[in-house]
Amino acid sequence: MIWETSLLIGVLFGVACYLILRSSFARILFGFLLLTHAANLFVLAMSGSPDGRDSPVTVKAGTHYVDPLPQALVLTAIVIGFGVAAYLVVLLYRIFLDQRTTNLRELFDPARRPDRTEDDPS
Amino acid sequence: MTTNLVILPLILPVLTALTLLLVGRSRFWRRWLTGVSVLVQLTVALGFVAATYQLPPLMLPAAGWAAPFGIVLVIDQLTALMLALGAMLALAAINFGFAEMPTRRTHPLRAPLIQFMMTGINLSFITGDLFNLFVGFEVMLIASYALLTLEADDFDIRQAFPYLAINLFGSTIFLVAAGFAYTIFGSLNFAQIALVGSQMAGDPRITVLGLLLLLVFGLKSGLFPLYYWLPNSYPILPAPVAALYAGLLTKVGIYVMIRVFGQVLPPGLTLVYQCLGWMAAATMIFGALGAISRNSIRGILSFQVITSIGSIALAVSFFTEYAFTAAIFYVLQDIMVKSSLFLIGGSIGVLNDTDNLDRTGGLWKAAPLLGVLFLLQAFSLAGLPPLSGFWGKYMIVTEGARLGHWIYITCVLVAGLLTTFSMLRIWLTTFWRDEAEAGGHIDHDDLRWKPMTIIIAVMTLISLGFGLGADHLLQLSAEASHQVFDRAAYIRHILEVRP
Predict the structure, then answer these.
(1) Does domain A2-52+65-107 have CATH number 1.10.287.3510?
(2) pTM score, two decimals?
(3) Do B278 and B218 touch, CB atoms closer than 8 A?
C-alpha cells in the first residue's frame, strides 16, 4: 500500500509542477490545487500502513490503530490550503479583469505599460 | 517556568484585529485602538526580554498537556528580543501610516490585517513545534497576501501573483518537510526532535530534511536563487506597510533558520551549512548589484533587503555561538535601519510626489533633517563605524576570518561597497541635486512630512543607540545565542517541566 501511495504522490507532484510551469491562469490554479493534494497525501502517508499498528495502550487485544496525529495535521493543512486556493481564484480573476489577459507571458511583458501617465509612488 | 502570560503576544493582536473589524470605519477608534494595543504589545515584549535574560525560557503547555504530546508555546531570550523589535517596528509603521493618512485615505481593512499579520509573525516566534510554525507562517502569509493586494492599483496588482505563487509553493514544501520530520523523529516538538536527533547524528535522512527546510526558509527570507519575488512585490506596497514587510517578514525566515538549524536539528549537517553559505554569499552580491540596477528608491531598498539577508544568513552558516550572536545582533539592528529607510522613502514620495530617481531632487534645502537621517541610516546599512550596521558586519568578518572563509569575507566587503554606491545614488539625486535640474518639483504646501520625519528621527535615534551602546544589545544577543546553543538546557526545560 505504501508503494502505491508514494507512486501516486510522485505522479501528483509531477503533474502539479508541470501545470504550474504553464503560462495560463487556469492551469496554474489547477496545478496548485494538485500540489496541495500531493502534500496532504504525503503527510497522511506518514502515519504508515493504513492497516494500523498496535496502540501503545491496548483496549482490546488484536485491535490496530492508525496514528491519528498526521490526520489532524492534514485536516489543518486542508483548511489552510482551501482558504489560500479561494484567495488565488479571486486574485487571478481580478488580474484578468484589470489586465484583460490570462496569459502570464503577456502579463509580464516588459513592453506592457500602465495606462496612467505618471508612475506616482502611491 | 510555566506561565499563562506566554499567550499574550498571540492573543493581543487577534483581539485587536477582531475589535477593529467591529469598529469598522470610525477613524478615531481605529487609531486609538491600534495605537494603545501596539503599545501594550511592546510593553509585554520588553517585559519578556527582562524575564528571560539569564533565566530559563517561559513556556505554556496548551491545555495542560505536557511537552512532547501537547502543543507548547515557548519564549526564550531570542524570541523575546524578536517580539520586542517587531512590536517596536509595528508601532513606528502604524504611526507613520497615521501621519500619512490626512490626504490619502487608507483602506479600513489595513489596520486589522496588520494585526493579523503580527499574530502570524508572533506565533512563528513563540511556537515550540514544527507544525505550529507552519500554521504561523500561513497566518502571516495569508494576511500579507491580502495587504499586498489591498491598496495596489490595477496595473501593479499583477506583481502579487509571483509573490503568491512562490509562497504557496514554499508552504507546500514546508508541509511535506513537517511530515517528513514526523516520520524521522516521531514528534514535531522542537525539544523532542532535538532529543531524539542527538542520537541520530549522521543519518542521511536528516540531511535531506535539512535541505528541504533550507529551501523553505530560503524562499521565505529571500536567499539567492529564490529571491526574485521580493524586489518586484515590495515596491507596490504603501510605505508604512512596505517598512513592516522589509523589517519583519524576511527576518522571520532568518529567525526560524537560527532556531531550527541551531537548536532543533542535530548539529553537523555540513552540507546544509555549506549550501547556506554559498547561497548567502551569492545573495549579498546579487542583491547589491540589483540595487544598483534599480531607478526608484523603493526598488533600491527592496534589493538592499536581500543584501542584508545575505549577510545574516552567512553568519548563520558559520554555525558557531559567536557567529549566531553576530547574526542575532544584525537581525535586530537591521529591523530598525531597513524599515526607517523605507519610511524615509515614503516621506520623499510625499515631498517629491515620486520616488523615481530621475525626478527627485532639492530635498536637502527643503528638509535637511530628513537628509541627515537618511545619511545616518544609509551609512549604517553600508556598515560604517560607529553605526549599528558596522558592529554586525565586523563580527561576521572577524568570525569568517577566524574560520578561514576568505571568499565569503570578500563578498561581505564588496557588497558593502556596492551598497554605499547605491545609497549615494539616492543621496546625490534626491538630496543634493537642485529640483529644477531634476525637472521635478517639491510640494511645499504638503506638511505631512513633518510628523513623518519625527517618527523616522525616533527610529534613527534607537538605531544610533544600538550602534553607540552596542555592548548592551550585544550582551542580549550573546545571551540569546547562548540559549539557542545550550540544547541540553532547552530540552531539560521544555520536556521536564510538568504543569
Answers:
(1) yes
(2) 0.92
(3) no
